[in-house]
Structures are given as C-alpha cells and as structure tokens.
Design goal:
CATH architecture: Orthogonal Bundle
Helix content: 55-70%
Number of domains: 1
Largest sheet: none
Structural class: mainly alpha
Order of helices and strands: HHHHHHHHHH
Number of strands: 0
Number of helices: 10
CATH topology: Hypothetical protein af1432
C-alpha cells in the first residue's frame, strides 16, 4: 500500500527585499525547491525566526550550484562524514557572504557574519538558530528530495540500504522536539518511495566502462 504524503508546512511569503533577492539568486539551482521549503519548515518550527535564519535556510546548499565543490561518493562515504559536511557548509557560507557583500547596502538588512555562521552550521546544528535550520533542512529533504534518493538507487549510484540510511540520518540528527513527529511521518513516506533495487538494465549501464 502506497503511503500518502503527510501534512507539510505551509508556504511562507517572502517578507523582505533581501529574501526576495535571494529567491531570485537561487532560482537557477536545480534543488531550489528544497531551499525554499527549508525556509517554510524553519518558520513553522520557529515562527519568530529572524531574517538571518530565514536567509540561511534558503541559501544553505548554494555551493552546489557552482562547480568545483566537495564531492560525496554516495556509495562509499558515511552520511555524517565531517570532511565533506564541513567543506560543503563552509563553502556555501563563503559564497553567501560574498553574494551579500555585492548587494546594495539598502537591501542588506541582515548581519552578514551571522548568516555566514548559520549556513556553515546547517549540517551539524548549533546554538542560536542553527539547530532549527538543521531540523528544517532535514524536513525539507524528506519532503522535497525523496525522489532524488529514489533516483540514486535506480541509477545505481548507491544501494537501497545506503539511500534509506540517508533518510534515517536526516531524522536522527534532529534536535528540535517540534520536528520529530513530522519527520517520522515524512520518513515513512520517503522510505515507501525507494525502489526495492535498481532495474537490471540500469545496473548494467552503470557497471559498463
């Protein structure tokens, strides 16, 4: 029986010129929806989230839009590999900080150093909003990127077990109690979307030299 998509956080309108500028900046990114949904989940978990938190949520993975970043071997490296996570987080943080530095001063109604800190911590969490952003990232991943995890298996990039481990890891790292129930529900839905194994034709194509 197919598991229905559970309740998800409502979309939240962009409230500042800086957020609107960020939305335009990230539009070419192929996982732009994940970034925007991270912001929606953040506001659900923390309705008083300040502009720095909201901006960090909607830009946290942006380094992947630019070539030359760290690469995670989906089949062999651990999902909590610190050498990948910190390289990914800090590269995104520097790119966001540089982008903010190029904006007109009137548009930048946020603390650039604080946005940089929050983006750098989005994978591991931390104080003063970082745990909330990490939880929102996990919820958005389960909701908006479950099909990406499915495609990893179908393409042979990793096993079903490894893809499932990523989904479980997204839940296990959450430290915000309010995120635990929606995460459990989304986890069940996302696991249900994983195929049993890659089709033979796909496996052969991946294995071919």
């Amino acid at each position: 029986m197919t598991v229905a998509l559970p309740w998800t956080a409502p979309e939240v309108a962009l409230g500042t010129d800086l957020e609107r500028a960020a939305a335009q900046w990230i539009e070419p990114y192929n996982q732009q929806q994940h970034l925007m949904r991270t912001r929606d989940w953040l506001v659900h978990l923390s309705p008083g989230a300040n502009v720095e938190m909201r901006l960090a949520a909607m830009t946290h993975d942006i380094e992947r839009m630019f070539p030359g970043g760290p690469v995670l071997d989906l089949a062999s490296r651990d999902w909590d590999d610190p050498f990948y996570l910190f390289a990914h987080g800090t590269r995104s943080a520097e790119i966001v900080a540089d982008w903010m530095g190029e904006l007109e001063p009137a548009c930048v109604a946020a603390d650039r150093k604080e946005v940089r800190r929050l983006v750098a911590l989005h994978e591991v969490g931390g104080l003063r909003g970082a745990d909330e952003i990490q939880a929102a990232d996990s919820l958005s991943f389960l909701e908006s990127l479950a099909d990406v995890a499915r495609d990893w298996v179908l393409s042979g990039a990793c096993s079903r077990e490894k893809a499932a481990a990523k989904l479980y890891y997204s839940v296990d790292r959450i430290r915000i109690p309010a995120a635990e129930e929606p995460a459990a529900q989304l986890l069940e839905w996302a696991l249900d979307r994983l195929p049993a194994a890659a089709p033979a034709a796909d496996r052969d194509r991946v294995a071919a030299p």
